[in-house]
Specification:
heterotetramer; A mainly alpha (about 325); B mainly alpha (about 325); C alpha+beta (about 675); D alpha/beta (about 675); A: about 75% helix; D: about 675 residues; alpha/beta; Rossmann fold; globular
Chain lengths: ~325, ~325, ~675, ~675
């Protein structure tokens, strides 16, 4: 188990390394004008711009910068932001926003798990019933219609009809979180319901369900003793990834409701050529991504005795 | 014991529980007893011909698909919208290419002159919406096709050539583990925004999902016996992929094609909203939606029309895709 | 055995998740910061009782869009309005402005020159304290703090080449010192103290309260530079405390303040709160208890919030304005208030050496046409900017009309005559507020005919194709460009000139300007210091620091002799004006003549300025108004009202201001 | 045995399915009386409706099917009328239970074995949880799970197929049903395991006094378990009677055909009697006797009027006009007579043995072959150190249970799987590893393969024409299009298919036809050597004979050499010249076929032989099972060797074992 964990972690590290390097090099291909604000672009001459870039260490060749970056990272120095907040350590820049994104993401996650999974179960239990059709219509609507449209609808409803705050505020976290959390949860509810329903319906056609019926088990008993847990296994694999992605913040929602979270930071830091922030963000996202996959596998192995991650060793006769 | 057997025997379902008399038989068949109890001619070829099934995969797919009334209705609705987008441009009072900004005409709600009202600089919204509809559909179709072509070709290689597995898996990890928006932003800032750049970047980042899908299927079919047979017969890799495996992937490809259209349109609107979408000179529904974001609380019609059309298109393809995947599943061919 | 393994797996997952969660907990949740204790200005509750009869606001809540979030707290480092508008409230300059744009003492009690502006002496006000963000006094502000400030700015390794352009152009030895530090290794540069600096640069602190600058040449307008953030002080004790990197990256809670406010709450991209500095030297000035900035995603969100009573001020977008203006029963219909012009003066900068789309081949057709004065004058007299102006101000488009190169209200003659009024007088333009005043259809037709005749002879084909570049990501720019295109069609006819709208990706400099792909640019210039030289000097021929003529118009690459002669003539006029340092009226008159010459030959075509609409609880005419420097956004001496001002009230303010200005 | 009480009585049951918009009548008026405590076997080919019929006793028909006529009386109630799941639950489990075919999928993979048994105990026996647990443990012991206490807490994936089937049986029996339906419970299992499961079911029946309905297509299994046998064809029971009556004195031509087609009853070198064609399409209305079109001795009336049941004895009835007194007399086929002992045959008296020919030519030689799958820690040795020769003109059979590596050997020879050690020679040339293009083409032409699963071995999306000509296309073995078509036509005719089939798609054909297309595909290359990988194991009994005959015919016509891979020794005995028995990747015994049957030496071979189900109730009921326990070999001190113990008879063992084998041969 330990050996496997170490091996997976090393593999993940490699993936993260490759991703960060690619993004790093791509960043250096970007025009450096993004490093300047519009005010600066109007007034600065080319020489002045060059001087500023040189002072920021952005004039060196990409590989020199890459070497410097990794050397610093290995020293544990993740660098400072340049344009998001000049001189502020990247960890703090990200940390501030991560907290907000995570809080909101967790709320949304809890809501969507509490609503989405029972919804999927109910749909599967009463397959082709009214509730199933309603639920399916909901999932179709959410999955098919572009998020921008559905968020706009929620925005209009929430702001115009319910008078909820249109923007996130640190003073009224509760009320101002309602709309963004609803938007976040809305999508994942549909996701969970859809997959839960699908996996359950899949399980219900399996042979062992027939055997359970032949035994004389009640539909309810079949549902709760057999189908539910088995349907949960494929869900389990994706759960950590969705969890990590949710706490990683949603760009669209956070932009829409001025939530100072991770999402806008990502595009802002790229837009502003804040290379250090981008790199560390990418490192963070990539780590969360590979971590999610790894945790998913672990979780699945915990639920499903058939899966032995170590390849051998689980053999007990 | 004999009793019960006897009862059973009497009640055996011999068309009414009696042994036929010769008369009855002759009456029933219009043939003589002699003839009836003579050997019939045996046709081995007839035997060979009996009982072959008239089952056809595609016929069944089609039949089940047509049964999904709602999906079919949505597809028809989509076609209607698509065709109408041309008609609409033709019958509209204004031509997209000759739109003139006019500050006396701005923000006019839909009326007889301006069927969808006017936008913030007083241009007819009707022709903009329909023009954008065409752009969006064109974009989605090109991206979907591109994704499929690239995804299928590389997915086949990924699935069939074991040595490439590690390589493609790593690519998948690289693309999957970070939000695509990072790459999209980088590219948009680096080489700009245009219809074709958008197409290519979307294909660039989305083929992998198609490829992964195809790869799993190829994996499944690769070691089927008929492929072993082909290998045994010395069939080349390309032929195996194109003749033996690809035909089995068609239903999946069509499904992905159909589902990739709503997702592309959704992606396009998101990117447009973030300012990473199409060039502003090429209005798409995403761009109109983004623009309307600034006005929709005052002038909801600027949101409603493009939003409705976007929803029709995406829901239609989503439903059609899912209906098709149901129909394509041989388990449902009952 | 398997059970154990599964248990182990579960434990591992739990551990990892906990550690992920733990990592994220380290930064303090933003809602438990000191902001919680601050009274909530937008809770909608009753305001604290105001003793004055005029129900003034004690707390001010305004907004910024999230893209305008601050990127630094170091005022010496900032080059952007988005930070300066906040930070000028935090640290006092030597000199600030009043609501008419006059210079008034701030940290400097007085200033003077004895040699026509070659050296300038500032008397620093005694008793000013550096305070921390909670208002606790930390140190005294003394003259030498300005030495540290300038050293910081000019030190390549300390300020990373920011804000150097004006000091290096004006202060003796500044450029040399900057280049000196640039050559030093990073460590040495950062370690530099004042010693070398003082030997090289023309600045000294005669005593604790006397600060002397030496300019490169006599500069009568040097004090106007003293309002700018490149001449701000820095507290050496703070630099000492934070270190060089720490000082550059100072934050609101570790920096020191001398200004009317300190920043007490800062949540990035969400909110910041300025609180009255209890130890501010000027106890007489009127300040708010708190000023709150809300960071909003877009102007429309701001409007929503204003309507919900969460903001005291909102700038109106096109659609808001249209809705309110056209609907007489709208609750805000009578509260529309026209803002004052922004400091930018927008011109059409023509490109005299343009290439074709490949960026290499000269576009002869355009170059010949634009070198022809009749061609340019046809534009000058023919183009009616009204529709273009409506894009910013559709109620009073002519408020946005701009007929001069220099921005209004930059400087005035000693008799009170505003400089640009003199220019307009010389140009013979008398705006009536109803139509675009310089328009002259007859002249336009005549010049058009003349141009077509003359140019046809030179082999120019008509219509001339004019390439106009906009950012590919800006819908507003596209809409505006479409309006402009229509103006060309309506005013000059498609047979003369056709506008092509093209887009660039990110860098207009690299993609358009350097390969010379655009026919013209519409660009705004805001002054850095209070002298017409700052405007007119950008358009001279053959001079390095003439920014527009070199970088945009590419006049130094042009070949047409007649055009060059015109430019030379203009350059000479500007230089003559600049040489007059003892008589300001004569100096301004000479500049006015040069400007008129430039405009009458349509070397550059003045185009518009920004006058927007708003709904507000503050009287703009009571605020600091300056066209240069960065003092405009100081929240001092504002007149405010609990109820939003009405249009009528605002008109009255404007009228009162006009009379005040005359005096 | 007394059969007094009818426990379940089905009358005129008609079951229809709506399939692709059409109505399929799967059961066309089927009646059956089941007696308490008996074992009834229902035999039939796939599609005969045997499974559907019994599923209707449990209300377990698929969603699209329903009982549309007749009645099923059970405990005084017509259960055909039951609709809701709730009603059915009164019947299911406690009254009637069922064991399904595939043990791999019929257990919940995520629940412990014990829990799953416990669940059915709690449902049907009023016991406290603790008692239920004890009872479950007891049940597991009862079905022969060794070390049950420990295995109680294990998951299904930790069990082998046979063990899982035991658990499934335990679950079914734990409900204490009155009737237990066993739906092909051993089809998915190896022969040796099958025999054990059959024995287990018999034991349990005795212990619990259950009535058992046994559904199977394997007449050997029927002979083993059944007291009464019902033969089903096209949705009807066409003959029913006591096991002896059906095996020794069948009356329906279909029963004759079914028995006659068994290779066990065939004579080497002779054609097996076959049933041509395929079962009727049940979408169509069938008039007369459904079997008539395939019956060489059909009467005119068979095409017109459905025959009634004719009583042969009080317990034996058949549904054929041949029993009508007016019908001409038709003799039972020879194979039936042989079975009932009315005729004897001498196996293999005049068979030719190519390997005994002094001028024999070695066509294929395998030397020390090893095949591994996977790498690193997941490495798995499928075949280890295998050597043998195949001589031109012989049929060399490779027999072993699933997972023994027999298919891997076949695929290694046709170069589908690469080998990791050793070499393969074809006509003396090495063909393993890298070879020249020329040799490659030569091998492709010379060595072909026939696959197991006729459903999977044809490309569904290509026409027969393409499938058959794939090889000749690759090697450009024709001059022009006409010649290609001619070659395809010829190949099709040779395997007994109509040339016009070339333009059809595989899904239009039945399993047997498809298998023949697969043979045509190999044949068109004019190969010398064919690897036939279980070519008949996925086919119905009646079809098997066709394919076996065809293979024999082709061998005779073209002098082909076969490597015949099978798990069923009885088939192999009919077709093979020499037999190699493989166990876990190693060949343990190799010998001439009859010699192997006469003198099996290796304990595994003996176990295998004893487990073969014979289609003879008398033999089956009295046979003693030999169970192979690999732990009898003690190879720690002496390494085993591959030894030719008699000329042509090889066996794998160490010195001590070889000694005992020799002793056995002497005896």
């Amino acid at each position: 188990m330990l050996k496997y964990t170490i091996k997976r972690l090393l593999q993940s590290l490699l993936t993260v390394f490759v991703v960060v390097t690619i993004v790093f090099l791509l960043l250096r291909l970007m025009p450096t004008d993004y490093y300047f604000t519009e005010d600066e672009l109007i007034k600065l001459t080319d020489e002045q711009k060059d001087d500023i870039l040189q002072a920021a260490g952005l004039k060196d060749s990409a590989f020199v910068q890459l070497g410097r970056f990794y050397a610093a990272v290995f020293r544990g120095d993740l660098g400072t932001s340049r344009r998001i907040m000049n001189g502020k350590p990247v960890t703090e820049v990200i940390g501030d926003r991560f907290g907000i994104s995570m809080r909101m993401g967790c709320m949304a996650l809890i809501i969507s798990l509490l609503v989405g999974i029972p919804m999927g179960i109910l749909q599967a239990r009463h397959k082709d019933g009214v509730f199933d059709h309603l639920g399916t219509a909901y999932t179709i609507f959410i999955n098919a219609v572009p998020r921008l449209v559905s968020y706009s609808l929620i925005y209009i409803l929430g702001v115009r009809l319910l008078g909820l705050p249109a923007m996130y505020s640190t003073r009224q976290t509760t009320t101002s979180s309602i709309l963004p959390v609803v938007c976040l949860a809305m999508g994942s509810i549909a996701g969970y319901a859809l997959w839960m329903r699908r996996y359950m319906v899949d399980e219900m056609t399996k042979d062992y369900i027939k055997l359970a019926r032949i035994k004389g088990l009640t539909p309810r008993g079949i549902m709760f003793r057999h189908v539910l847990r088995n349907a949960f296994v494929p869900m389990a694999q994706n759960l950590p990834t969705t969890f990590l992605l949710t706490i990683g913040g949603s760009l669209l929602v956070e932009r829409f409701f001025s939530v100072p979270g991770m999402g806008p930071l990502l595009t802002n830091s790229i837009n502003r050529y804040d290379t250090n922030v981008v790199q560390i963000l990418v490192m963070l996202y990539a780590s969360m991504g590979v971590m999610g996959m790894f945790l998913g596998d672990l979780l699945m192995s915990a639920f499903d005795p058939r899966i032995r991650l170590t390849g051998k060793g689980g053999e007990s006769r | 014991m004999t009793d019960s057997i006897q009862t059973m025997f009497d009640e055996m379902p011999d068309q009414g529980g009696r042994i036929y008399s010769t008369d009855a038989l002759e009456q029933m068949t219009g043939d003589s007893e002699e003839n009836l109890f003579s050997f019939a001619e045996y046709h081995p070829e007839e035997a060979e011909r009996t009982g072959y099934s008239d089952y056809s995969y595609w016929k069944s797919v089609w039949r089940i698909f047509l049964k999904k009334k709602f999906a079919v209705a949505m597809v028809i609705l989509f076609l209607a919208v698509f065709i109408f987008s041309f008609v609409a441009l033709a019958i509209g009072k204004y031509q997209y290419d000759n739109l003139v900004p006019d500050n006396r005409q701005m923000f006019i709600s839909p009326n007889r002159e301006y069927w969808f009202g006017t936008d913030n600089i007083g241009r007819d919204y009707w022709c903009q919406v329909w023009y954008a509809t065409q752009t969006s559909i064109k974009l989605a179709a090109i991206v979907a096709l591109g994704e499929c072509v690239v995804g299928v070709v590389l997915g086949c290689l990924w699935g069939y050539v074991r040595k490439l597995d590690r390589f493609f898996t790593e690519i998948y990890n690289i693309l999957y583990s970070v939000p695509t928006i990072i790459y999209m932003t980088l590219i948009a800032l680096m080489i700009g925004r245009s219809f074709w750049i958008m197409c290519i970047t979307l294909i660039l980042f989305h083929w992998i999902y198609m490829a992964k899908n195809v790869r799993n299927l190829v994996f499944m079919y690769r070691d089927r016996e008929y492929n072993l047979a082909s290998r045994c017969l010395g069939t080349r890799l390309g032929t195996i992929l194109s003749r033996n495996i690809l035909p089995y992937l068609i239903s999946v490809i069509i499904l992905r094609l159909a589902l990739s259209i709503p997702s592309t349109i959704g992606y396009e609107t998101t990117l447009s909203y973030l300012g990473l979408g199409l060039d502003v000179n090429t209005p798409s529904l995403g761009i109109l939606l983004r623009n309307s974001r600034a006005y929709f609380l005052d002038y909801p019609y600027l949101l409603i029309f493009p939003a409705a059309i976007v929803s029709i298109v995406t829901v239609a393809f989503y439903l059609a895709g899912n209906a098709f995947s149901d129909a394509a599943d041989p388990r449902n061919h009952v | 055995m398997t059970t154990q393994k599964r248990l182990a797996a579960l434990l591992l997952i739990a551990a990892l998740l906990v550690s992920v969660a733990a990592c994220t907990k380290t930064p303090a949740p933003p809602n438990t910061g000191p902001g919680e204790e601050v009274s909530d200005p937008n809770a909608g509750g009753p305001q604290p009782p105001v003793t004055q009869t005029a129900k003034e606001l004690k707390n001010w809540v305004t907004y910024l869009t999230t893209v305008n979030e601050m990127e630094t707290f170091n005022i010496l480092y900032s080059q952007n309005n988005k930070e300066l508008q906040v930070l000028t409230n935090c640290i006092d300059p030597l000199i600030t402005h009043d609501s008419y744009g006059n210079m008034i003492p701030a940290a400097a009690e007085s200033w003077s020159t004895e040699d026509n502006g070659k050296t300038w002496t500032f008397q620093i006000r005694p008793g000013i304290k550096w305070v921390d963000y909670q208002g606790n006094p930390m140190a005294d502000l003394v003259a030498s703090d300005w030495l540290y400030g300038l050293e910081w700015v000019l030190n390549f390794h300390k300020n990373e080449a920011k804000n150097t352009s004006m000091p290096t152009e004006m202060i003796q030895g500044a450029a040399e010192y900057y280049n000196y530090t640039k050559e030093l290794p990073e460590d040495e540069g950062k370690a530099l103290g004042l010693d070398t600096f003082l030997t090289m640069v023309g600045i000294e602190a005669r005593d604790e309260h006397t600060l002397v600058y030496t300019c490169l040449a006599p500069m009568p307008y040097f004090p106007t530079l003293a309002t700018y953030n490149c001449l701000y002080p820095a507290a050496p004790a703070l630099i000492e405390e934070l270190g060089v990197d720490g000082f550059r990256a100072c934050t609101y809670d570790n920096m020191w303040y001398t200004g009317p406010y300190t920043i007490t709450t800062f949540v990035a991209e969400n909110e910041k709160v300025l609180t009255k500095n209890p130890n501010y030297w000027d106890e007489s000035c009127k300040r708010f208890d708190t000023v709150t900035y809300k960071m909003v995603e877009s102007a429309d969100v701001a409007f929503q919030m204003y309507q919900a009573g969460q903001l005291d001020h909102v700038d109106l977008t096109e659609s808001n304005l249209t809705t309110i203006y056209n609907n007489e029963r709208h609750e805000l219909h009578n509260n529309l208030a026209e803002a004052r012009p922004t400091k930018y003066s927008y011109q059409i900068h023509l490109c005299y050496d343009k290439n074709l789309e490949d960026g290499v081949t000269p576009d002869d057709n355009w170059n010949k046409a634009v070198a022809n004065e009749a061609f340019r004058l046809a534009w000058y007299y023919g183009l009616d900017a009204t529709n273009y102006l409506s894009r910013t101000n559709f109620i009073n488009p002519q408020k946005c009309a701009n007929y001069t190169y220099t921005m209004n209200n930059l400087v005035s003659f000693s008799d009170g005559t505003e400089y640009t009024a003199r220019v307009r007088e010389l140009l013979g333009i008398n705006p009536d507020g109803q139509s675009f005043a310089r328009l002259d259809a007859e002249k336009a037709q005549a010049y058009k005919a003349q141009a077509m005749e003359e140019l046809a002879a030179q082999g120019v084909t008509f219509p001339v194709q004019a390439d106009y570049y906009i950012s590919g990501s800006s819908q507003t720019a596209l809409d505006t460009a479409n309006v402009l295109k229509q103006i060309f069609t309506d005013c000059l006819g498609d047979d003369f000139c056709v506008l092509n709208i093209c887009t660039y990706i990110s860098s207009i400099a690299n993609e358009v300007r350097n390969p010379k792909k655009a026919s013209f640019y519409i660009n705004g210039w805001g002054a850095d210091y209070g002298d017409p030289q700052n405007y007119l000097g950008q358009e001279t021929y053959g001079e390095d620091n003439a920014y527009y003529s070199d970088a945009y118009s590419k006049i130094n690459d042009a070949t047409d002799p007649q055009l060059i002669d015109t430019y030379r003539q203009y350059t000479q006029m500007v230089n003559e004006a600049a040489a007059i340092v003892d008589d300001m009226d004569a100096r301004y008159e000479a500049y006015a003549q040069a400007e008129v010459y430039m405009i009458e030959h349509a070397l550059v075509i003045p185009w518009y300025k920004n006058v927007a609409w708003q709904v507000t609880h503050a009287n703009d005419y009571s605020k600091i108004y300056a066209l240069y420097g960065c003092q405009t956004n100081r929240f001092v001496n504002w007149e405010t009202s609990e109820d939003a001002y009405t249009t009528a009230e605002y008109d009255a303010f404007a009228a009162a201001y006009e009379t005040g200005a005359k005096q | 045995m007394k059969k007094e009480k009818i426990i379940l009585s089905a009358k005129d049951v008609e079951i229809q399915f709506s399939l692709r918009g059409d109505l399929l009548t799967a059961i066309r008026g089927c009646s059956l009386d089941l007696y308490e405590g008996e074992t009834l076997a229902i035999v039939g080919e796939s599609g005969s409706g045997k499974s559907v019929f019994t599923k209707s006793f449990l209300g377990m028909l698929d969603q699209n099917g329903s009982v549309t006529g007749g009645s099923i009386l059970f405990e005084g109630e017509d259960i055909a009328l039951l609709k809701s799941e709730k009603d059915w639950r009164r019947i299911r489990g406690g009254k009637i239970a069922m064991v399904m075919q595939d043990p791999m999928t019929s257990l919940n993979p995520l629940k412990r074995i014990g829990q799953q048994v416990e669940e059915s105990i709690l449902l049907h026996q009023q016991l406290s949880p603790a008692e239920a647990r004890k009872e479950a443990l007891h049940m597991l012991e009862l079905v022969g799970i060794p070390d049950a206490a420990r295995r109680f807490n294990q998951y299904p994936h930790e069990f082998s197929g046979g063990m899982r089937q035991r658990v499934v049986i335990a679950i079914a029996v734990a409900c204490r049903p009155r009737i237990l339906i066993c739906d092909e419970p051993t089809t998915a299992l190896d022969v040796t395991i099958q025999a054990q499961i059959l024995a287990l079911i018999r034991d349990l029946q005795k212990k619990f006094g259950m009535t058992i309905i046994y559904i199977t297509h394997d007449l050997g299994v029927v002979a083993n378990v059944a007291e009464r046998v019902a033969v089903m064809y096209a949705g009807q029971i066409i003959e029913i009677g006591a096991a002896e009556e059906i095996f020794y004195d069948p009356r329906h031509p279909y029963s004759w055909a079914l028995l006659g087609a068994l290779p066990q009853l065939g004579v080497k070198g002779e054609k097996l009697p076959t049933i041509e064609g395929t079962p009727p399409n049940l979408f169509n209305r069938i008039t007369g006797d459904a079997f008539a079109p395939r019956n060489r001795q059909a009467l005119q009336i068979d095409y017109k009027v459905e025959p009634p049941y004719f009583e042969v004895t009080s317990t034996h009835k058949a549904k054929t006009w041949l029993l009508d007194p007016r019908a001409p007399r038709v003799e039972q086929p020879d194979s039936i007579k042989r079975l009932s002992g009315r005729m004897t045959v001498d196996y293999g008296s005049d068979t030719r043995h190519p390997h005994e020919d002094p001028n024999r030519e070695t066509l294929i030689e395998v030397r020390g072959m090893q095949v591994t799958f996977g790498t690193g820690r997941k490495k798995f040795v499928a075949v280890d150190d295998v050597s043998f020769e195949i001589y031109r003109g012989e049929t060399f059979a490779l027999v072993g249970e699933s997972g023994s590596g027999k298919t891997t050997i076949g695929r290694a020879i046709t170069r589908i799987n690469p080998i990791s050690a050793g070499e393969i020679l074809y006509k003396g040339q090495r063909i393993s590893g890298r070879i020249s293009k020329e040799l490659d083409h030569q091998v492709i032409k010379g060595c072909q393969m026939i696959f197991q699963d006729p459903l999977a071995s044809l490309n569904e999306r290509a026409k027969v024409d393409y499938i058959v000509s794939e090889g000749i296309r690759n090697l450009h073995m024709y001059r022009d299009e006409d010649e290609r078509q001619e070659m395809v036509r010829k190949a099709l005719c040779e395997v007994g298919l109509l040339p016009e089939f070339a333009s059809r798609f595989p899904h239009e054909f039945s399993g047997g036809q498809r298998q023949r297309i697969g043979i045509a595909r190999a044949l068109v290359m004019k190969p010398e050597f064919i690897v036939a990988d279980e070519p008949i194991s996925a086919l119905d009994v009646s079809i098997r004979a066709q394919v076996l005959n065809l293979l024999n015919e082709l061998k005779a016509t073209y002098g082909l050499t076969y490597l015949f891979i099978a798990h069923d020794l009885s088939v192999v005995r009919f077709i093979a010249d020499r037999i190699a028995v493989i166990y876990k990747g190693r060949i343990v015994e190799l010998s001439e076929a009859e010699e192997l049957f006469r003198h099996p030496l290796h304990p595994y071979t003996r176990a295998l032989l004893s487990a073969i189900p014979e289609p003879d109730p008398a033999v089956e009921r009295n046979k003693r099972l030999v169970v192979y326990d690999p732990s009898v070999h003690d190879y720690t001190e002496e390494k085993p060797v591959w030894c030719e113990i008699l000329p042509g008879h090889f066996v794998y063992g160490n010195a001590a074992e070889l000694e005992s084998y020799r002793a056995a041969l002497q005896a």
